[in-house]
Amino acid sequence: MSRGGDNATVLVVGVPRSGTTWVATLLGATRDASYFEEPDNHFTYPFAFRAKRGLAGGFYPALEPGQEALDYERLWSAAFRLDETSRPGGRALADGMRRSLARAAWGSVANEQIRRALLHPDRDGFALRAARALALPERPLRDSRHLIVKSVLCPLSLEWIAARFPLQVVVVLRDVRNVLSSWIQLGWVGRSGDDMLDSLDPTIQERLADRYRIPPPGHGASPVARGTWLLAMLSLALEDAARRHPDWHVVRHEELCRSPLAAFQELAATIGLEWTVEADELLNELNRSGKGMQRVRVASELPEVWRSRLGPEQARDIAAVLERFPFGA
After folding, report:
1. Which structural domain, as residue segments, surrounds residue 168?
2. Does one domain contain both 198 and 254?
3. Average model confidence (pLDDT) for the chain?
4. Where does a domain end: 103, 118, 136?
5. Which stretch of DSSP H or E encloses residue 172?
6. What is the pLDDT, as a whole number, of residue 4?
7. In a domain, 176, yes or no
8. d(Cα 228, Cα 319) in Å, to the nearest integer?
9. What pLDDT does 44 receive?
10. Which residues of the chain have pLDDT under 70?
């Protein structure tokens, strides 16, 4: 654990829309810290697609400690600034050209093509193959004493990552009803050709269902019910992993919202980060009305925001799935 003069490398992990961006952004605003967002996002970075392609799990790689995944390891090594930090001029120039070409190819590919190719590796198109071949791992753009990295796609590989790299882990947990209400508000649930649960491959669905004795809803179930099972299972796996690692830091979004300043100051101090006036100002700046993917929110309105966002049928579908999950047990 980082204390005093040590450098801190921190990985903030949760499920999508659980508040990880809020947490990581504010930790990244502490003294001598910087923030690197989602190096494993396959929609953003071609190397993330390359590293995850072929791994069990689909969008959410599921690796157990001890398994080999060379490109996935390269991805995180670069993200944590543990790869080669300097290269000869010619090599650096060649790397820059490769990144530019890979990003250019990537920019011509629609998200739906990326989604389809990640879940079905035999469906790569030419641009995808070119970007994958050229891609290099992404590194933080800024050098800083402390580094905050955030991911919402590695809950099922978190122990694998933590076993390989010297870092501190912050797990962000949020009421699944609040998470799902955000997904629904953004139009992410029930989109044509986009089933939330299909983003996790059937083999891993079955593995998790067997581990916790909670089978997933069938294809005839509502998109809300299937999405609830996915988010609840990822959250349960995170909660379970955190219990096995008492040195990890666990924060609950609802508690952060009730007393943001005190909670964030305590979290920063526990990690070994120095809270600053600038972090205070950013916390206040982010604490205002916003919508969609904006990072601003009125924190006090969020602990039970699902009550105003979900219709009665949606709330019933979610409750019927959640009652099977032993959260906090």
Report:
1. 9-83+137-322
2. yes
3. 90
4. 136
5. strand 168-173
6. 40
7. yes
8. 9
9. 94
10. 1-5, 84-91, 191-194, 289-298, 328-329
- What does the pLDDT look like over 11-70, one tens digit per residue? 999 999 999 999 999 999 999 999 999 999 999 999 999 999 989 999 999 999 889 999
Q: 156 with 299, same domain?
A: yes
pTM of the predicted protein model: 0.92
Q: 26 and 125 in one domain?
A: no
| The two three-digit tokens of residue 285, written as one number | 């700046």
Q: Could you tell me if residue 1 is inside a domain?
A: no
Take residue 115 and report the two structure tokens written for it.
Answer: 């989604």
Q: What ranges in the chain are assigned the alpha helix state H?
A: 20-27, 46-52, 70-79, 89-107, 111-119, 126-134, 158-164, 176-185, 202-212, 223-244, 253-258, 260-271, 277-286, 306-309, 312-322
Number of domains in the chain: 2
Q: Are residues 52 and 145 in the same domain?
A: yes
String of DSSP letters for 92-161: HHHHHHHHHHHHHHHHTS-HHHHHHHHHSGGG--HHHHHHHHH------SS--SEEEEEESS-GGGHHHH
Instruction: Provide the residue type at 174 as one letter.
Output: R
CATH, residue 57: 3.40.50.300
